[in-house]
Specification:
The complex is a heterodimer of chains A (about 400) and B (about 325). With about 400 residues, chain A is α+β, with helices and mostly antiparallel strands. In chain A, about 50% of the residues lie in helices and about 10% in strands. In chain A, the strands form three sheets. Chain A has a three-stranded antiparallel β-sheet. A three-stranded antiparallel β-sheet of chain A has the order 6-7-8. In chain A, strands 4-5 form a two-stranded antiparallel ribbon. In chain A, a hairpin with a 2-residue loop joins strand 6 and strand 7. In chain A, helix 2 packs antiparallel against helix 3, helix 4 packs antiparallel against helix 16 and helix 6 packs antiparallel against helix 11. Chain B is mainly α and about 325 residues long. Chain B folds into two domains: about 60 residues; about 270 residues, no CATH class. Chain B is globular, with a radius of gyration of 20 Å. Classes of the chains: A alpha+beta (about 400), B mainly alpha (about 325). At the A-B interface, strand 1, helix 4, helix 5, helix 7 and helix 16 of A face helix 5, helix 8, helix 11 and helix 12 of B.
Chain lengths: ~400, ~325
């Protein structure tokens, strides 16, 4: 056969594929097993969260943020609340700050456990999946105990958190956190000392620090290249400036370093939770001037004209404050990377424009760079290692 | 008259042998789910019958009554033929495998060669299915599988050369008898390198973890049989499990002394000789089957190029070294 007769094999991977973590669609051009070109297609989970929020009040927007990265909805809520609080100049009580930090780190552990489970499953280690699910289940039950929901919690409120936590919850959480490092050890014995695992992850999907910054990576994929950047350290929110923790860094920026970073992060999260429980102050959990939902008397009586600024934000002080800063950006360190909320306010009770800086969206963009020139099996490993959630990417 | 009698007795033998074999396969699926379940902190099947003991029967019934889907663009004849090629190749290997002294359907002189040759034919089923499905995933899976089976067959064959050199025969019963002449009663000890190569190639040859690339769930969804459904799908499964049993039996016969017990053990514990040979044989086979499940519960999957590198750069040289050492010892 002449050389010109040889064509690349085009394989459509997804949107229904067991290993693309949701509805990501990749079109791969293969030459044998080598990926020549990889094109991600997104938008299969687009629900118009940003546009939708323009039609909802600040309080009503909150449940929408749950659905962004559904594996760590607590952190999304916190990010949104921070932005609105910044916009309105609401100071939240100290206890609420600690509770948010604690819950946020619990969500981070949950999210990382799901990442580890699916990442390991993608590479073929099935047993890790069920081990991590066992521990995640415990945390989800704790969420349920406080909030009533397991995944889409909507627990933080603008101005604090919805309800207080009790001793029983703290007891259970403390017991879990005490034992958690051992459990991480357990996962590591299953995969970290496994030659197959090392061969599949070391030196694969490498990205240098400079490239990572240029591509706009944040979170573990950036830190795996050795760049010291963590929103929790650089722009501390909630109680992060009052607890001690380290930011684990990698060196080579390959899949193995990303894996290592996340594993260390889980240990640090456990450390933060422990400190939060020990230092938890007493007091209010919701600021006095927090936004509250005021329901109209009956849904049938809602008049379009009635839904005005005054109905939802009664505080004159807040109204004045908003007029000072019509635009805000607030970001949190979500398990995936830097999750930012940019809100433009037009003095109504609804955001004029809300833009979500979704780390998954940025990270999917770098996927072709990581995959091209490697094998098909590495595409799967790479998708797992950058830890994307399509709900957040497509919004 | 003699010929008729021979045909009759062989048919009966075959029916009994294969009946027991298929029962084993059915319960191997059940055992696999149970073993992996317990490794993964689950219970495995629990609903059908006590401890889910009737699960395999429920599975078979379900698969039999499922709709048989043939893709519109598939090559229908080859598509239908493929599972039967795989299955008949896997089943035929058992014709020469002895489970006890003289308990064998056909005691031919080139038994070992026959097993390797017929098992190699199973690759055709894989190629046919991947090609006829007219699907890219199936095609990639079958390409991988073909390359993998061909390269590991070399290592598998070479690893058994040491055994043949020591036994001076290709006859499987003879190989067992020869092992019994040594006081330790197993070729496992002098052929430890060969055994290692054999076990690794055995995993690759049967497409099991950590070498289950042809059906890599996460990359190729299911590999070469992705377009199959219902009973045809189960025939592929059957062939895979039969291949596992075939390789386990081969390991038991060639390295673990088949149905015999090491003479030194019989000398120390005379009561062991009461236990029939078939029990020992089955125990040795079950151990290897368990090994398959155990590895599946523990190991991640290799990448395609790494798999090939292991086959050609590590296993084949090791097997050759083993042959050289064995030959030298034989001359001395």
């Amino acid at each position: 056969m002449r050389q010109s007769d040889v064509k690349e094999l085009i394989v459509n991977m997804g949107p229904q594929h067991p290993a693309t973590h949701g509805v990501l669609r990749l079109v791969l051009e293969l030459e044998g097993e080598v990926v020549k070109r990889c094109t991600p297609y997104i938008g299969y989970l687009h629900r118009g969260v940003e546009k939708l929020s323009e039609d909802l009040t600040y309080v009503q927007c909150l449940p929408l943020t749950d659905r962004l990265d559904y594996l760590s909805s607590m952190i999304n809520n916190i990010g949104f609340c921070l932005a609105v609080e910044k916009l309105m100049g609401i100071n939240i009580p100290k206890r609420a700050k600690f509770i948010r930090t604690l819950m946020g780190e619990m969500a981070r552990i949950c999210s990382h456990l799901v990442w580890l489970a699916t990442h390991a499953l993608d590479i073929g280690a099935m047993t890790v999946f069920l081990y991590t699910m066992r521990d995640r289940e415990y945390l989800l039950e704790l969420f349920e105990m406080v909030v009533g929901a397991r995944l889409t919690v909507s627990y933080p409120r603008v101005g604090g958190v919805r309800c207080d936590i009790n001793e029983e919850f703290l007891d259970k959480l403390y017991r879990f956190i005490e034992d958690f490092p051992n459990k991480i050890q357990q996962y590591e014995t299953l995969i970290d000392r496994n030659r197959v695992w090392l061969k599949r992850t070391k030196g694969v999907g490498v990205i240098t620090a400079e490239e990572a910054i240029n591509w706009g990576l944040t979170g573990p994929p950036l830190r795996a290249t050795g760049v010291y950047y963590d929103v929790r350290k650089f722009f501390p929110y909630d109680a992060y400036d009052e607890v001690e923790f380290e930011v684990p860094l990698g060196k080579n920026g390959d899949i193995y370093d990303r894996y290592k970073c996340r594993m260390q992060e889980m240990r640090q999260s456990a450390r933060i939770i422990k400190q939060c429980i020990e230092k938890l102050p007493t007091g209010l959990v919701l600021a006095e001037d927090a936004l509250r939902i005021r329901m109209p008397a009956s849904p049938l009586k809602i008049d379009k004209k009635e839904i005005q600024f005054e109905v939802y934000i009664e505080d004159k002080k807040i109204e004045e404050f908003i007029q000072k800063f019509p635009e805000v950006y607030a970001s949190v360190e979500s398990p995936k990377g830097e999750l930012g909320f940019y809100i433009v306010c037009d003095h109504s009770a609804k955001p004029y424009r809300m833009r979500v800086r979704a780390p998954s969206f940025v990270h999917i963009a770098v996927l072709p760079k990581l995959c091209e020139g490697f094998l098909v099996a590495d595409v799967i490993a790479n998708i797992g290692s950058i830890d994307i959630v399509l709900g957040e990417c497509d919004r | 008259m003699d010929t008729v009698y021979l045909i009759f007795i062989t048919t009966v033998k075959t029916a009994v042998y294969f009946g027991i074999l298929l029962l084993h396969v059915a319960y191997a699926t059940y055992t696999e789910r149970k073993v992996i379940g317990h490794i993964q902190l689950r219970l495995g099947p629990m609903i059908v019958g006590p401890h889910g003991i009737l699960q395999p029967i429920a599975d078979i019934v379900k698969l039999l009554f499922k709709e048989d889907i043939i893709p519109a663009k598939a090559d229908k004849f080859i598509f239908k033929l493929a599972p039967f090629v795989s299955l008949s190749a896997a089943l035929s290997t058992f014709a020469v495998i002895p489970v006890n002294k003289n308990w064998v359907i056909s005691d031919i002189n080139v038994g070992l060669l026959y097993v390797l040759g017929i098992a190699g034919l199973g690759t055709y089923g894989v190629i046919f299915s991947g090609w006829a499905s007219n699907s890219k995933y199936a095609f990639l899976g079958s390409l991988r599988s073909t390359a993998q089976m061909i390269s590991y067959e070399v290592a598998l064959g070479l690893s058994l050369v040491g055994v043949v050199l020591m036994a001076e025969s290709f006859n499987l019963s003879e190989i067992v008898n020869r092992q019994n002449e040594y006081w330790y009663g197993m070729f496992l000890f002098p052929q430890i390198i060969g055994y290692f190569v054999f076990v690794v190639s055995m995993l690759a040859e049967t497409n099991r973890l950590p070498f289950d690339l042809p059906e890599a769930e996460t990359e190729l969804v299911a590999g070469y049989f992705v377009e199959y459904s219902g009973i045809r799908f189960s025939l592929f499964y059957l062939a895979e499990y039969l291949a596992m049993f075939c390789m386990s039996s081969l390991a038991a016969i060639c390295f673990w002394g088949g149905w015999s017990i090491p003479p030194i053990l019989v000398k120390t514990f005379p009561f062991l000789s009461i236990i029939p040979g078939v029990v020992w044989f089955l125990l040795k086979v079950y151990f290897h089957i368990f090994l398959f499940f155990w590895l599946r519960g523990t190991l991640p999957r290799y990448r395609y190029d790494q798999l090939m590198a292991i086959g050609w750069k590590i296993l084949i040289p090791l097997a050759l070294i083993n042959i050289v050492i064995t030959s030298l010892l034989k001359i001395l």
